[in-house]
Amino acid sequence: LRRFGERGEAGNDIKYPLDVTVTSDGHVVVTDGGDCSVKAFDFEGRGVLAVREGFCLPWGLDATPKSEVILTDSEAGALYRLTADFQRGELKKCQMIRSRLVSPRAVAVCQTSGAVVVIEHLKARGPSKGSTRVKILSAEMELIGQMDSFGLNLVFPSRIYATAVAFDKEGRVIVTDVCSQAVICLGKPEEFPIFSPLISHGLSYPVGLTYMANGSLVILDSGDHSIKVYSST
């Protein structure tokens, strides 16, 4: 294993990483909540680009097949598309593509349809600790469907507090749920929401997930500080 991105004040240092993705051209892109920036590195760990386009709190991000980056700004309540030539370290465009979101954090892009799914974190009402809302947008940023924890609880057997999201290779929405300590499939955007648990045992506090090229599912479990890999079969 290699590590890069020292904690410090230099331009390519990472103060408080919140999310990471890898582009199709082999660059590692990180959101840094410490200095409200987005930083890109090559696979040798060399910093190639740092973007500070007036972000308030950049949080989640995911790469498109064209090596663009879809990015949430949790404090601004916005979704951005970042286009850059990472080989040359040049920012081409940083465009807000959706606004009026509520504390958006995790985000995923469907590699086939271009659909985007965002997890919003809603403020608590009364003594509860708040809830989450899964919002699905088309590639043109039109709302396809959304459901918050309360609505999902009416449909499903348990309260869902979603922390991370991904699309599988068939274009289904997959979320981690820290309430039931599970990974749940919510179906394709056009059939959302369905309820199909994928992993219901062995997780403590799942906060991240991604699919590998071979279809294996990788879970980041902060409950026991581990990375768990599940086969597709």
What's the structural blueprint in terms of helices and strands?
Layout: E1 17-22, E2 28-32, E3 37-41, E4 47-51, E5 58-63, E6 69-73, E7 78-85, E8 90-98, E9 104-109, E10 116-122, E11 131-137, E12 143-148, H1 149-155, E13 162-167, E14 173-177, E15 182-187, E16 196-199, E17 206-211, E18 217-221, E19 226-230
Antiparallel strand pairs: 1-2, 2-3, 3-4, 5-6, 6-7, 7-8, 9-10, 10-11, 11-12, 13-14, 14-15, 15-16, 17-18, 18-19
Polypeptide structure, described:
This is NHLC1 ligase. NHL repeats lie at residues 1-44. It comes from Drymodes brunneopygia. Keywords: Ligase, Repeat. Pfam families: NHL (PF01436). The chain has 233 residues and is mainly beta. The chain has a domain at 1-98: Thrombin, subunit H (Beta Barrel). The protein is built from one helix and 19 strands. The protein has one helix spanning 149-155; strands at 17-22, 28-32, 37-41, 47-51, 58-63, 69-73, 78-85, 90-98, 104-109, 116-122, 131-137, 143-148, 162-167, 173-177, 182-187, 196-199, 206-211, 217-221, 226-230. A four-stranded antiparallel beta sheet has the order 1-2-3-4, with no helix packed on it. A hairpin with a 5-residue loop joins strand 17 (206-211) and strand 18 (217-221). It is globular and about 50 Å long. It starts with 16 loop residues before the first strand and ends with a strand. The mean pLDDT is 90.
What are its keywords?
1 helix, globular, 233 residues, four-stranded antiparallel β-sheet, single chain, mainly beta, Thrombin, subunit H
User: Largest sheet, order of strands side by side?
Assistant: 1-2-3-4
Can you count the beta strands?
19
How widely separated are the two ends? 27 Å
The assigned CATH architecture of the domain at 1-98 is Beta Barrel
Query: How many individual helices?
Result: 1
**In CATH, what is the class of the domain at 1-98?**
Mainly Beta
Beta-strand residue percentage: over 45%
**Mean pLDDT rating:** 90
- The helix/strand class is mainly beta
